[in-house]
Amino acid sequence: MGKPETVLVTGGAGFVGSHAVEYYAEQGADVTALDNLSRIDTLETADESRNTAAYNWNFIDENYPDVELIEADIRDGDALESIVEGHDAIVHTAGQVAVTASLTDPRTDFEVNAEGTFNVLEAARKADSDPAVVVASTNKVYGNNVNDIPVREEENRYWYDDADFENGIPESLSIDGCEHTPYGVSKLAADIYVQDYAERNEVQAAAFRMSCIYGTRQFGNEDQGWVAHFAISTLNNEPLTIFGDGKQVRDVLYVKDLVRAYDAFLSDPDGKSAVYNMGGGTQNTTSLLEFLDLLEEKSGMRTDISFDEWREGDQKVYVSDTSRARNELDWERKVDFEEGIERFVDWYESR
C-alpha cells in the first residue's frame, strides 16, 4: 500500500489524535481531523485550564492550516460514512477515555467506544477508497486477569514474580472470566469488532492495546493521563492524590513512538495481525513513586502528596510485551522516559 496519502483522524483534537494529525501533515498527506470537542465535559475532575481539545484544535488550525477540521460525532453513522469516503487510512482515537466516567455513565461510554468504533469500521467497509484502520484500544481489555499474575513488592515498586511474564503481558493473555469495568468492556467490544472485520477481510484493521502514552500537548487529570497529571501538578505546585501505595508500575511510551507504530501498520497492513500490545515495554517502566523522583530531578520541584484507597480496576503492574509490534511492524521505541519527560517539562513551561 505504501504511505497513506489521505488520512482521517477521529478524535483529532485529542492528545494522541493531534499527534497523528501532526505526523501525517508533516509527511505531506491530506489530513482530515474529526472531533466533537466534548472531552472536557466527560471528565469529572477536568477544568478549563486543562482543555486538551480546545488547545489542540487551535494548535492544528494555527500550525497546519491545510488540515480540514470537522466538528462531528462518531455516533452519527450516516455523517461518518460521507466523511470517511475518499480517505485511504483512518486513525481512530475518538473515545470516552476514563474508567471513572464509565462507572457513572456506562451508556454514553458504550455508545462512544463500542458503537462509535462499529460506525468507523462500517464506514470503512462501505467506502470505495478502502481505508485501512488503526484503533486506539487499551490494556484495560484484559480486566482483572492482569492482577492474577503474581507480583513481588520491592522498595519503590511492584514487579512480576512469574517467569512467564518477564517480557510483559502478551496479546494472548485471557480477556475472559474476570471482572472488567464498563470502560474495559466497551473498549473490548470495539477491539473484538476490529478483529472480526479484519479476520473476514472486510477492513484491514488493527487494535493497538495501549499502556501509558504520554507527551506534549497532553493535559492529564485525575481521571485519565496520569503522567501528564503528575507532571503538571508538580510544575504548578498543586497537591496530588495517589490511589494505592504508589508502587504500581506501568510501561510508558512517548506519543510520537506510538504514532510511528500506527503508521507502520497503515503503510503495509497486508498479512498483519489485528491486535498489538503497545507501550514502552520492560525497558521503559516507572512506578508512581519513581516518577515523582524523576520529576523532582528534572524540575527541582516536589508537590504535596496524599494517599487514598486503590481504585476499581487498577493494576499493580502492567507492562506490555511489545515483541509482536517489533517483529511484524519492524517498530522500535526511540524516546526513553527521561528524554520524554524533559520534552514535556520544556513544552509546559514554554506555553
Architecture blueprint of SSEs:
Elements: E1 6-10, H1 15-26, E2 30-35, H2 39-42, H3 52-63, E3 68-71, H4 77-84, E4 89-92, H5 99-104, H6 106-126, E5 132-138, E6 151-153, E7 158-160, H7 182-199, E8 205-210, E9 212-214, H8 226-235, E10 240-243, E11 249-254, H9 255-267, E12 275-278, E13 285-287, H10 288-299, E14 305-308, E15 317-318, H11 323-329, H12 337-350
Parallel strand pairs: 1-2, 1-4, 2-3, 4-5, 5-8, 8-12, 9-11, 10-14, 11-15
Antiparallel strand pairs: 6-7, 11-13
Helix pairs in contact: 1-3, 1-9, 4-6, 6-7, 8-10, 8-12, 10-12
Could you please describe the fold and organization of this structure?
With 351 residues, this protein is of the alpha/beta class. The chain has a single domain, classed as Rossmann fold (3-Layer(aba) Sandwich), CATH 3.40.50. The protein is 39% helix and 18% strand. It has a 7-stranded parallel beta sheet, sandwiched between helices. Strands 9, 11, 13 and 15 form a 4-stranded mixed beta sheet that branches. Helix 8 packs across helix 10, helix 8 crosses helix 12 and helix 10 crosses helix 12. This is CDP-paratose 2-epimerase. Belongs to the NAD(P)-dependent epimerase/dehydratase family. Pfam families: Epimerase.
